[in-house]
Amino acid sequence: MYESVLQLYIMSMYQLQQFHHHQQPMMKMDSMRKRERNKSVDKERLQVMDLSGMSLDFLPKPSLDLATICKLDLSNNNLQEIPESLTARLLNVIVLDVRSNQLKSLPNSIGCLSKLKVLNVSANFIQSLPKTIENCRALEEVNANFNKLSMLPDTIGFELINLKKLSVNSNKLMYLPSSTSHLTALKVLDARLNCLRALPEDLENLINLETLNVSQNFQYLETLPYSIGLLLSLVELDVSYNNIKILPESIGCLKKLQKLSVEGNPLTCPPMEVVDQGLHVVMEYMQHKINSSDENKSKKKGWMVKIVKCGTFNIKHVRHGKRPEHAGYNMLKHQKINGLASPGLMGMLSPLRIFSPRRSFD
């Protein structure tokens, strides 16, 4: 009798253990499904708030939780300010559009928008961007066209490491901050219709830049930095309607360049008869200038000496094979850029890239 009871007890304990063994993964699956459902609910809760074109002079009290807004469109109104308290609560906003208002400044609390990717503040009266914008490290696109900007935050390039497009055309900018050259993700830089006196000297870090437009700075912009020739991803360069007399010879290094706009400048090098024959002839002309600049080497201690000393270009013309000749310029011969001395590798090994302030923050 005692033995049979003991046997029943052991069997029941074994069955209970087996039941728990099978139930445990099922409970885990249930908890995972609940978490997934909660995530999907959270995504569904994020909403778009469109208050554009309503002639608003001030913002009404929102009827929903500001933390649930992923896109806020306040464009085409008469807003003169955006409350600090409102911006600080837009914790999940990804797109903020306040273009075409009467704004003279942006709230400092914009630095709280850690998820913000697109900011459009164009067509306002903004004189400067708040320094706190550097905290918006998820930013990929900034459109500040048609404002009254006279400067950008000095260290903007050290912080906005994901920025791909920066449009600041039609403002009053005299200079771009030197930190602009550290925007390594940047693909488009549009700074036309300003009062730019110069561009940052060290552009070689802009390894992804495809479009550079600094046209229509009129009498103010007289020179381009030699490092412009190390923008090896550059496809489109527009420097038209400035006061540039001489293009840097390094432009001949831009292998991917497909469009070069230089009209409206008092160019002497290259001469207009070369420019009129198209991009290919201009590129050959600039490459030939590098190859034949022996007498100028002693004067050029910067990029020119680096390129020539490393053997990127051969001083002697290539004599193998024949090249098609062009009317007006038929003596152009150059050697292809390749090997360890290419400007791409030189840009990667640049002291400014290795010791950039952004690295020190890492």
TrEMBL record:
Q: Which Gene3D superfamilies match?
A: Ribonuclease Inhibitor
Keywords of this entry:
Leucine-rich repeat, Repeat
What GO cellular component entries does it have? cytoplasm
PROSITE patterns in UniProt: LRR (PS51450)
Enumerate the PANTHER family for this protein.
PTHR48051, RAS SUPPRESSOR PROTEIN 1
What name does UniProt use for this protein?
Answer: Uncharacterized protein
Species per Swiss-Prot/TrEMBL record: Psophocarpus tetragonolobus
> The organism's lineage?
Eukaryota, Viridiplantae, Streptophyta, Embryophyta, Tracheophyta
